[in-house]
Inverse folding.
């Protein structure tokens, strides 16, 4: 994997943070917002990330560590996003309980496959 020079990463990270502060100070200024987004995009391309926040975090990690440690961190297996997002929300077994409650609310014909007889028949 090719990595950019640390001086370039530091320069683009400073530029991104400066425009981030300017954008937070005046979010309605279109020129500031466009330049901030451009700085974020450049950082994304430089660090190989899809999100500007991820790229900024990666740039900070890259500048803090040596190249070998950074590459080790990048190649470490990461949990799936859905697995991380679901942590802490449900206790074990609550998903089945939720499904059971949803099934109870369904009409009888949907649950058993029977058709309900017309009223009064």
């Amino acid at each position: 994997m090719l990595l950019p020079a640390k001086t370039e990463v530091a320069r683009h990270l400073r530029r991104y943070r400066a425009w981030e502060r300017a954008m937070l100070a005046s979010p309605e200024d279109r020129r500031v917002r466009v330049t901030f987004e451009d700085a974020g995009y450049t950082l994304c391309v430089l660090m190989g990330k899809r999100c500007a926040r991820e790229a900024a975090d990666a740039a900070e990690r890259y500048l803090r560590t040596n190249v070998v440690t950074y590459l080790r961190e990048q190649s470490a297996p990461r949990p799936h996003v859905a697995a991380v997002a679901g942590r802490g929300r449900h206790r074990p077994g609550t998903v089945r309980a939720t499904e059971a409650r949803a099934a109870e609310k369904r009409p009888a014909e949907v649950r058993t496959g029977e058709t309900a007889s017309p009223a009064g028949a």
Observations:
- Residues 71 and 77 are 12 Å apart (CA to CA).
- Helices lie at 6-25, 30-47, 52-64, 67-75, 81-86, 94-105, 108-112.
- The chain has a mean pLDDT of 78.
- The chain has seven helices and no strands.
